[in-house]
Design goal:
The protein is built from 1 helix and 13 strands; from the N terminus they run E-E-E-E-E-E-E-E-E-E-E-E-E-H. With about 240 residues, it is mostly beta strands. The protein folds into 2 domains: about 90 residues, Roll (Pnp Oxidase, Chain A); about 130 residues, predicted glycosyltransferase like domains (Thrombin, subunit H, Beta Barrel).
């Protein structure tokens, strides 16, 4: 049942039923992220967890999310046993339900702390129309404008989130620059984005939570960002 879906090293998430916490979330409450270690039968799966110190219980039916490339599958499973290896603790799970394909975010988002710089488009052009005119934006429209430095909070192939001391209205067009790692080298990403959300950060009345959607971004740049995000995600659960 799961041999055709799960590969060694693929991401697995283990959730506890939300009802145990008095909640009604269908997905449950996340216990840990893990890596698939071995599929021992059509219904048995071993996963490795580097730093989970808690215990699973044999009388609880857990929820597993199995990541297979761009696809995600959900199933129910019971904990059978565990043992320790050099790379972490290994949990043996028995899958007891059919695999159900679930909708995944188009782009996976990860926490990504780092500096970014941005400038605001100075133009009388209707910002709402810009995405419909791929040839409209270019760097020259930002020349002479001021670039500010702030700090990124998270990143995906479709956009980013950062904290700033400047209020930026939704619809504002930005030129954004930040660095990612490509192999052993740093690479500067230079792209355009549209502010889709801006609100005051909790407990910080003079700073704003700003969310940006990338626009008019070449496919090769999107792919570089996706690969970088994937690398961060892998490192976080190893």
């Amino acid at each position: 049942m799961i041999r055709d879906i799960v590969t060694v090293g693929s991401k697995v998430q283990v959730f506890q039923p939300a009802q145990m916490y008095g909640k009604q979330k269908d997905s449950g409450v996340l216990l840990f992220d893990a890596l698939a270690r071995e599929v021992t039968s059509e219904s048995r799966l071993e996963v490795t967890v580097p730093d989970f110190l808690g215990e699973l219980q044999k009388n609880i039916c857990y929820i597993l999310y199995l990541y297979a490339g761009q696809k995600v599958f959900r199933c129910s499973a019971y904990y059978q046993s565990s043992y320790h290896q050099d790379d972490g603790r290994v949990f043996c799970m028995e899958v007891v339900s059919p695999l159900q394909r679930v909708q995944r975010r188009m782009y996976q988002r990860v926490s990504c702390r780092g500096k970014l710089t941005f400038a605001v488009l100075q133009s009388d052009k209707n910002h709402a129309m810009i995405e419909e005119e791929p040839g409209f934006l270019d760097k020259e429209q930002f020349q002479g404008g001021q670039y500010w430095t702030d700090f990124m909070i998270d990143l995906s192939g479709g956009g980013l989130r950062f904290a700033s001391g400047r209020r930026l209205s939704p619809g504002t067009i930005l030129n954004i620059l930040f660095e990612i790692m490509e192999g052993e080298e740093k690479k500067t990403i230079d792209l355009f984005g549209r502010v889709v959300h801006c609100e005051v950060l909790r407990n910080e009345q003079e700073r704003f939570d700003i969310r940006v959607k990338f626009i008019q971004t070449p496919k090769e740049i999107i792919e570089q960002i996706i690969q970088f995000v994937f690398l961060i995600e892998r490192k976080s659960i190893q």
